[in-house]
Amino acid sequence: MDHQQQEQAAAAASAEVARQGEQQQAADAQYDPEDTEPAFIDASAAGQFEEVQVEDGDEPMSDDEDGAGPAASAAAAAASAAATDGTNQPTAAVPDQSIATFRSHAGPVYAVATHFDAATGTLRIVSGGGDDRAYLHTLTTGGGGGGGAPQTTTIPLAHPHTDSVSSVAINSAHVPADAKGKAARLLVAVGSYDGTLALYDATTGQLVQLLDGPTDVEFVDFHPKGGTVVLAGSISDGTVWMYHTPTMKCLQVFVGHEGGDGQGGGGGGGGVSAGTFTPDGKFALSAGMDGTLRVWAPRTGLCRHTFRLAAESGVGDARAGLTCLQVDGGADGQLAVAGSEDGLAYIVHLAGKKIAATLRHYDETPGAAGGSGGGGGGMDVDGEGQDSGDEELRSVEAVGFASKAVNPNWVATGGVNGTMKVWDVTHGGQGQCRQVCRPPADGAGGNVAGVTRIKWHPTLPLVLVTYTDGATRLWDARDGSLVATLTGGHAGVMINGMSAEFVGADAPGGGTAVVVTAVDDGGVRVFEINIASAVKQ
Question: What is the mean pLDDT of residues 366-377?
Answer without folding.
Answer: 41
